[in-house]
Design brief:
There is one protein chain. The chain is an alpha/beta fold and 266 residues long. It has one domain (4-265): 3-Layer(aba) Sandwich (Rossmann fold), CATH 3.40.50. 37% of the residues lie in helices and 24% in strands. It is built from 10 helices and 7 strands. It has helices at 4-27, 44-53, 66-72, 75-78, 119-128, 150-157, 160-163, 179-185, 206-219, 229-239, and strands spanning 34-38, 58-63, 85-89, 102-108, 129-144, 189-201, 254-265. The chain has a 7-stranded mixed beta sheet. Helix 1 runs parallel beside helix 2 (44-53) and helix 1 packs across helix 9 (206-219).
Length: 266
């Protein structure tokens, strides 16, 4: 069985996949090109990238987690893409590739997504990309999951878990929405920023219901201690599956969420 965090990623992939596919399609990756998925996780994005560039292309997935890569190794066979994808363990801050190796590089929910300094990993992306090649970074950027309860959702989003992977004391310049400046500092040209939205509404399929339930837990894990007594009661009433008022059971339920994409030419 996958580890708990990996399992959460697999269950919630149904929410992310349409946005990832749309973002990849917008880049116009060349057919038969050679690309890198930096921080590929479970390898699900590698499949989408490989499908976009065709059977004559090749995608290398890089991740530091052996557990993720053990699962990812099964992905190409499941999607009939054996030979089009391979995986290598390593850090995005010190990648095991020569200069100018790839026609393009892609990183989703990894490079720049967190409070740490993104400079080392961005320099590595730039180093392994051929001149004229594309560099693209993508990350989950927002969600609205509690229709009718904006104040409660705002308070949940202000908790330590709700604001993650960022932190309250991080430098503003390190926030992912400042990525255009990072890419400009690398010397990239033709910089672009785009947002891709996904949504779910009642009646929810079993898969969407389960994915959204898991997303609630991922975004607001352990928040109770940071809420007022009133908000804590409302959170437990609306966001816990054992409650008769669990919001995913509401006949008018609707949610949306977004990914933000930043890219440029090396």
């Amino acid at each position: 069985m996958p580890g708990s965090y990996l399992k959460k990623l697999l269950v919630t992939h149904i929410l992310r996949e349409p946005m990832l596919s749309a973002a990849i399609a917008s880049l116009g990756l060349p057919k038969a090109s050679r690309g890198l998925d930096a921080g590929c996780g479970a390898g699900l994005g590698c499949t989408l990238l490989a499908e976009e560039i065709g059977m004559d292309g090749h995608v290398t997935g890089l991740d530091i987690s052996a557990d993720f890569l053990t699962y990812a190794a099964q992905v190409p066979a499941q999607s009939c893409l054996t030979g089009s994808i391979d995986f290598i363990q390593g850090s995005v801050d010190a990648m095991p590739f020569a200069d100018n190796t790839f026609d393009w590089v892609w990183s989703a929910d990894c490079v720049g997504y967190g409070p740490q300094d993104p400079t080392p990993s961005l320099k590595e992306l730039n180093r392994v990309t051929k001149p004229g090649g594309l560099i693209a970074i993508l990350a989950w950027s927002s969600e609205r999951l509690l229709p009718g309860y904006p104040f409660l959702e705002a308070r949940l989003s202000a908790t330590t878990s709700g604001i993650a992977p960022f932190s309250g004391d991080m430098e503003p310049s390190r926030h992912f929405q400042r990525a255009l400046g990072w890419l400009k500092a690398l010397g990239l040209q033709n910089l672009k920023a785009e947002v891709f939205a996904g949504s779910a509404h009642a009646p929810l399929s079993h898969e969407l219901f389960t994915a959204l339930q898991e997303l609630f837990d991922m975004r607001w894990s352990g928040v109770a201690a940071e809420l007022s007594k009133t908000d804590r009661a409302a959170y437990r009433r609306l966001c816990k599956p054992e409650s008769p008022d669990f919001i995913l059971n509401h006949p008018d339920y609707f949610a949306f969420y977004t990914y933000s994409l930043f890219h440029g030419i090396a």
